[in-house]
Design a protein that fits this description.
With 264 residues, the chain is α/β, with parallel strands linked by helices. The protein has helices spanning 4-22, 27-35, 40-52, 59-72, 74-90, 98-103, 105-121, 125-139, 251-254; strands at 141-143, 148-149, 154-155, 161-163, 168-169, 174-175, 180-182, 194-195, 200-201, 206-208, 212-213, 218-219, 224-225, 233-236, 241-245. It has a 6-stranded mixed β-sheet with strand order 3-6-9-12-14-15. The protein is globular and about 50 Å long.
Length: 264
């Protein structure tokens, strides 16, 4: 019986073949990046090595690292699939499943972070730092490899995303560009935010300190969050305050960033 992952990969191959037919000049890119591979994990390992290779680290070495990560930890592939489906569901600019894999830096940076986190958990700290550095250089996304991120994440546009060392992000979270999950000073220890499941974080929002943001809440664009946020509310402002309910049961999926009328 065909698994969900196999069905999605088959759908992606159909899309890729159609894309080659429509734009033959992209044939080599699409064959190398997708059609040449038997599984999503193989395509992701290829993309990881291609984008993060440099004069300091070859594609071959990075490909071996990525292949080992996906082989040893099937959860990485499961998370990548959930992230892919999240992008298709929530990003109105995503019309085909092949787009995040081939063209969307938020998705690609997130998968690179996942390999870096696998290295971190395996005690290969310096290699994890290298992956963090190259991901930041290649995609403009800086996620510490020790941070713990759930699955089903969507990072839209992704430019200037910063997520600190002790941050925790739950499942099914959506965030837009220029979001920071940071600390408030130079203290060591547990110093970064804890984001609940299903939270929507608007563009340019800053969540600072070891504070909790409750599940299925919304953080309005440009807000600076310095205190804990209850579940299922909307916060906005500098500093952020509760301005109303979250507006729906699943704000990260709905992606509705309009403030409630009572906020005015």
């Amino acid at each position: 019986m065909q698994t969900r992952g196999e069905a999605i990969w088959r759908e992606m191959r159909v899309e890729a073949e159609a894309a080659v037919g429509a734009e033959p000049l992209l044939g080599a890119l699409i064959h190398a990046g997708l059609l040449h591979h038997a599984r999503l994990e193989q395509a992701l390992a290829y993309r990881f090595s291609l984008k993060l290779a440099s004069g300091e680290m070859s594609e071959q070495i990075l490909r071996e690292i990525a292949d080992a990560a996906y082989e040893e930890d099937p959860a990485l592939g499961d998370a990548a699939l959930r992230d892919l489906l999240a992008v298709r569901s929530r990003d109105p600019a995503c019309h085909r499943l092949i787009q995040p894999l081939l063209f969307f830096k938020g998705y690609q940076a997130l998968q690179a972070y996942r390999i870096g986190h696998w290295l971190w958990r395996g005690g290969r700290r310096d290699m994890a730092y290298f992956v963090q550095m190259r991901t930041s250089e290649a995609f403009g996304v800086d996620i510490h490899p020790a941070a713990r991120l759930g699955a089903g994440l969507m990072i839209d546009h992704a430019h200037s995303i910063v997520i600190g060392e002790t941050a925790v992000v739950g499942d099914d979270v959506s965030m837009l560009h220029s979001v920071t999950l940071g600390g408030t000073g130079k203290a060591h220890g547990d110093r970064h935010p804890k984001i609940g499941d299903g939270v929507l974080i608007g563009a340019g929002a800053k969540v600072l300190g070891n504070i909790r943001v409750g599940a299925r809440s919304r953080i309005a664009a440009g807000s600076v969050v310095l205190e804990e946020v209850p579940a299922c509310v909307t916060v906005a402002g500098v500093p952020a305050r509760v301005v109303g309910p979250a507006g729906c049961t699943d704000p990260a999926e709905a992606m509705d960033q309009q403030l409630p009328p009572e906020a005015g």
